[in-house]
Amino acid sequence: MKVLVTGCCGYIGSHTCVELLNSGYEVIGIDNFSNSKKEVLDNIGLITNQNMIFYEGDMLDEKFLMSLFRTHSIDCVLDFAAYKAVGESVEKPIEYYTNNVSSVLNLLKVMKKFGCKRLVFSSSATVYGSPKKVPITEEDDTGGTTNPYGTSKLFVEQILKDLYQADSSFAICILRYFNPIGAHKSGLIGENPNGIPANLMPYISKVASKELECLQVFGDDYKTKDGTGVRDYIHVVDLAVGHVKALEKLEKEKKGLFIYNLGTGTGYSVFDLIHTFEKVNHVKINYKIVNRRPGDIAECFSNPAKAKKELGFSCQYSLEDMVRDAWNYEKKNKS
Ligand code: WQD
After folding, report:
1. Average pLDDT rounded to a whole number, residues 203-230
2. What would the mean pLDDT of 227-237 be, rounded to a whole number?
3. The pTM is what?
């Protein structure tokens, strides 16, 4: 089966390419390197001992997509190509909606033209906004997103629902990620954001490697077990395996629109992450408590039962595995 992976050199895309290649899929990757590096391709090859077909290009370039679909008969698309920095999205809404929404409209137009009707879409738990209750199930209300990044994911989910309403021969899987962290055990691929990390795990890693001086803990006055924010951290390799399971589901079902949370179902606080990282990796993390970050919520974690029941998916890695693998990657890739 020939699978197109957009954003194949990104954090989630690269880990998913590894799992797809190891599962015997023929992978074609595209990336515009706006938030990734070409060397990731070599590292995917080193890990899997396989080559994948790659094209540098942009999903906003319809001619590029047309020529790719004309050259290869694509059976399914896994779409990871999106900007994903919440704070940046507030400053650059036009860039975020153009890149995250218009590119998907382009992709769907070309897919339809070439009769490619299977899509796995990378969505986010951010579409739940500030959840009324936790754990969150797929039936809970979405909306009330507080930033253009989350709203762009919500828009694409609606586009996909409308598309399926109009043409039920499509087979679409929407995967709502909670908080992906960690890295492949080889340390060859991992989370390597441009500039100062916005997310907790990469920031902790850079404090541990002394590239950054001190972690700012955004508030310890939330109504949570220790006052700091609670999230559902999922190992990025578990997340990648979830995509292979979603692909298998679309192969089996032939058509339909399916939505799944991908999380562990366990919430961990900021202090849990700091203390677990210190214990597992025998390093000290300097931190100081500061004011809450605007737009942050107290608690967000999943009920993963639906993915377990319908995809046969459950997470294999612990929080200890996540922090160990994140640190292993950081040590091997210090900038
Ligand atoms: C986690 C916790 C912060 C940084 C976002 C997106 C989500 C997904 C993951 C793409 C919170 C606290 C953080 C720091 C801190 N992205 N924190 N100091 O905000 O849950 O989710 O990234 O798919 O869609 O919304 O992740 O890692 O930024 O924050 O105290 O320097 O860590 O307050 O409680 P978040 P995060």
Report:
1. 97
2. 98
3. 0.97
Using one digit for the tens of pLDDT, what is the confidence trace for 8-24?
999 999 999 999 999 99
Residue located nearest, by CA, to atom 32 of ligand 1: 200
Residues 222-258: b if buried by 16+ CB within 10 A, e if exposed: bebeebbbbbbbbbbbbbbbbbbbbbebbeeeeeebb
Q: Which ligand 1 atom is at minimum distance from the Cα of 230? A: 34
Q: Report the catalytic residues.
A: 149
Measure the CA–CA gap between 13 and 225, rounded to whole angstroms. Answer: 34
CA atoms within 13 A on the CB side of 76: 25
Does the beta carbon of 124 sit less than 6 angstroms from any atom of ligand 1? yes
Atom of ligand 1 nearest to the CA of 300: 20
- How far is residue 161's CA from residue 163's CA, in Å, rounded to a whole number? 5
Long-range Cβ contact pairs of 128-135 (< 8 A, separation 24 or more): 128/176, 128/300, 130/297, 131/297, 131/299, 131/300, 134/267, 134/299, 134/300, 134/301, 135/265, 135/267, 135/301, 135/302, 135/303
